[in-house]
Design a protein that fits this description.
mainly alpha; signal; 173 residues; 0% strand
């Protein structure tokens, strides 16, 4: 009786060890600490309003002291602030036109979200994986994944210039 209790407790501990402390990250590495990109943009000086009355706050309207924050940030980081107004850059415009030559669906994100949820519901893992709360996201999509090493080898064999990739032994699991 005592041996059975110990075995059950060990099995429970073993299953608990398989769990993830943060299932939302889904095996993505934790963000690295680095410079704060928001410290690059210099702050504009404070201004006294012309009169004591201030307009009521309105969501979506520009701030009096910082009317164009996105454009200022892009300019400070060396980009072209005019590209923000069009939504796409000149280089992207041709690609967008070509990709939408047969029309485009404005609700594609919602459609894909529903299809993805249904696909993951059908491929939710084995019984013990579900009981233990094991994340099977990558296992569900493994058949649809590209083998980056095989693709790089295929392109290099065809003399296509390719970017570098991590060595095969360093690939994430």
């Amino acid at each position: 009786m005592r041996v059975t209790t110990i075995l059950i407790a060990l099995a429970g501990l073993g299953l608990a060890a398989c769990g993830s402390s943060n299932p939302k990250l889904m095996k993505f590495p934790a963000p690295k600490t680095g410079p704060d990109e928001f410290l690059v943009v210099p702050a504009k000086p404070l201004q006294t309003p012309p009169d004591a009355t201030l307009p009521p706050p309105a969501p979506g309207y520009a701030n009096r002291a910082d009317a164009t924050p996105r454009q200022d940030a892009v300019a400070a980081l060396g980009g072209n602030p005019a590209a923000l107004n069009s939504g796409t850059t000149a280089g992207e415009a041709g690609m967008v036109t070509y990709a939408s030559r047969y029309g485009r669906d404005g609700s594609i994100r919602q459609t894909l979200a529903v299809e993805d949820a249904e696909y993951r519901r059908r491929n939710q893992g084995r019984l013990l994986e579900r009981i233990a709360g094991q994340d099977v996201y990558y296992d569900a999509y493994e058949r649809q994944s590209l083998d980056q090493q095989a693709e790089i080898d295929r392109f290099r064999d065809a003399n296509v210039p390719t970017p570098s990739a991590p060595p095969a032994e360093l690939k994430p699991e």
